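Students often ask why we bother encoding 3D structure as a string. The short answer is that it lets us treat folding as translation between two languages. Here is a chain of 323 residues written in the first language.
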Amino acid sequence: MKLIAKSITILVLALLVSPNTFAEDVDGSSDHPMVSRYEGSSITDYDYREFDEYEILLGKVIHDPEDSSNKIAKFSEDLEGKVTKISYYLPEDRSTLEVFRNYENALKSAGFEILFTCSGNECGGRKFNHKVVEYKAGFGDNYSEQRFLAAKLTRDEGDVYVSLYTVKNTGGGGPDRNHIYTQVDVIEVAPMQEAMVTVDANAMAEEIFETGSISIYGILFDFDKADIKPESASTIKEIATLLNDNPNLKLFIVGHTDNKGSLDYNTNLSQSRAEAVVGVLVSEHGIASSRVTPKGLAFLAPVASNSSEEGRAKNRRVELVEY
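And here it is in the second language, the structure alphabet:
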């Protein structure tokens, strides 16, 4: 039987398994209301925190170039909120692929967006295994058949992230050999208050003519993409008004990121985002392309420290620079 995908608006559905199926669950544990278990699984470890921090992995794990003993993800996101961590022990006659696909399909059916997925060595091999889940019996050093995904569900009441890791125990000769272990971590974050106060054209002009530039926080993009979110339309319209009201003004449209990921990657991402803004100004607002030049600076011009999420949020911006 496949994993059951439940609607986010309905309470936990009764699973079509016998009551004895969960007899070996650890005391005080239960499935998360939004993510069912694979049939025949039992919970071996359960941890719930009403409010905690969580780093969700969104890329391959590598050695820290400054400390080879430390393992870091090339891309990740720091989250805060309700954190539920559940470890499952699965039957011997299942494959990691079968279990993984069932979870993946169930999450997609429930409206989750897959942010990142990998398997085997493409995840980072042993390094990923040691990073994605704290050492637990059945998980540690079993990485030849590992599979992972990170998913996100966007909701008005707060986004939900899922970190799913499944692996086959291929080490040792004990009774758990060849069994599948799955780690399901669910993070329910509070809705982030985006800086969506639209700066009008007059305020933009005043700042630019006084200082030569202005940072804009009302242009938002999809995660890790250059797709502009619809709620950015009013801010871009004000930029167009600024240019129409000042026909001699020319602007660099500069994209900035935080320091998550490599410089090359973020340079390309920030350039693509700047080009996307220019594209809207030209195609939808009739601004001459000679007056708006896109430029991506990645994280080379921060306005705050990247050591905190608050600082990183300030650094993720579009800047208008007069030339």
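Translate back mentally: The chain has a mean pLDDT of 85. Keep this in mind for the problem set.
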